[in-house]
Write a structure and sequence with these properties.
Blueprint lengths: L3 H13 L9 H7 L17 H14 L13 H13 L2 H16 L8 E10 L7 E3 L4 E11 L4 E8 L4 H15 L5 E4 L6 H9 L3 E4 L15 H12 L12 H21 L2
Length: 274
C-alpha cells in the first residue's frame, strides 16, 4: 500500500513525462542518450528519434498492447519494431539494465558488483511461442523464467526455457552466465527444488556455494522465508509490466529483451528520481 509520500513522488514524476507514465523524463534520457547508436559516416542522415523509440517500447511493455496498437504519434510501428530488434541485437537493453543496476547499488551504499544472490523460476503461459513445454507442477503450458537476483531483488540473470525444463537444469545456465557477467558472486540461496547433485557439482566446479532454504515441516499457510521472499518480489515487479504477465513473444530473444526493458526501466527511474 502506497504512502502519501510515495503518491506525491509518483505525481511529481508524472508531471515530468511527456504523455504517458512510461515516457522517459529529461533526467532519465540524459543518462541514456550517450548509449544510443551513433550515425554512420555514409548514407543519408538518420531521422529516427531514439528517445521516441525507447518511449514506444516502454509503453508497449508497460501497457501490454500489441505492436500494431502503438499510438500513432510514436511513428510507424514497423519502424519502432525494427529499431527495437536492432537495439536488442546490439545488447543495448542489457547494457542499460546492468549500468543502472550498478549505479543503484552504489546509491544504496553497496558495492557495484554483488557477492550474493537468490535463484528461482516462474512458469508463464506462452500462447504464441514457437516451442512450448508443460510444467506438470504448475499445470502451465508455456515458458519458464529462471532468474537470479541480488539480495535486494535486482535482476542479475535470466534464462528462458520451455516450461518442462526442471528448475535445477535451467539454473545451470544461470550459473554460467553469472560467472561471466558478475564474477564476484559466490553465495546463492535457493529452495529445495535446486538441491540436485548435478547442479551442486557444477556449482562447486564454478566456485559457488548454494544454500538451500527449506520450508518448515509444520508450516501452515503462507510464511515469509529468509532470502527466498526477495526473488518473489522481483517476479511481482515484472508482472506490473503487463506485457510480462504472459509471454506473448514467438522468439525467446525478444522475450528476453522485453524483461530487460521492464527491469531496466525500474532501475533507471529509481536512479534518476531517488
Amino acid at each position: 500500500m502506497w504512502t502519501e509520500q510515495t503518491r506525491g513522488r509518483m505525481a511529481q514524476i508524472a508531471k515530468k513525462t511527456k504523455r504517458y507514465p512510461s515516457d522517459l523524463t529529461d533526467d532519465e534520457w540524459e543518462g541514456l542518450a550517450p548509449l544510443m547508436p551513433r550515425p554512420g559516416r555514409r548514407g543519408r542522415p538518420r531521422e529516427v528519434d531514439f528517445r521516441e523509440v525507447i518511449n514506444a517500447v516502454r509503453y508497449l511493455v508497460r501497457s501490454g498492447c500489441g505492436w500494431r496498437m502503438l499510438p500513432i504519434h510514436f511513428g510507424p510501428w514497423q519502424t519502432v519494431y525494427g529499431w527495437f530488434r536492432e537495439l536488442a541485437r546490439r545488447f543495448l537493453f542489457q547494457t542499460i539494465h546492468d549500468m543502472a543496476l550498478m549505479l543503484d547499488r552504489e546509491r544504496a551504499g553497496r558495492e557495484a558488483s554483488p557477492s550474493g544472490g537468490v535463484i528461482d523460476s516462474q512458469s508463464v503461459k506462452a500462447p504464441h511461442a514457437k516451442t512450448r513445454g508443460y510444467d506438470a507442477g504448475k499445470k502451465i503450458v508455456g515458458r519458464k523464467r529462471h532468474i537470479a537476483v541480488d539480495t535486494d531483488g535486482r535482476l542479475l540473470m535470466v534464462n528462458l526455457t520451455t516450461a518442462d525444463i526442471s528448475d535445477s537444469a535451467g539454473a545451470q545456465a544461470i550459473l554460467d552466465g553469472i560467472r561471466k557477467r558478475w564474477p564476484w558472486v559466490k553465495h546463492l540461496f535457493a529452495d529445495g527444488a535446486y538441491d540436485r547433485l548435478k547442479l551442486m557439482d557444477k556449482a562447486a566446479y564454478l566456485n559457488f556455494v548454494i544454500e538451500i532454504i527449506r520450508r518448515s515441516d509444520d508450516q501452515k499457510g503462507f510464511e515469509v522465508l529468509p532470502r527466498r521472499w526477495v526473488v518473489e518480489r522481483t517476479f511481482g515487479w515484472m508482472t506490473r509490466w503487463r506485457r510480462l504477465v504472459r509471454d506473448y513473444e514467438q522468439r525467446i530473444d525478444v522475450s528476453h529483451a522485453m524483461i530487460l526493458v521492464a527491469m531496466g526501466g525500474n532501475l533507471v527511474r529509481r536512479n534518476a528520481h531517488p
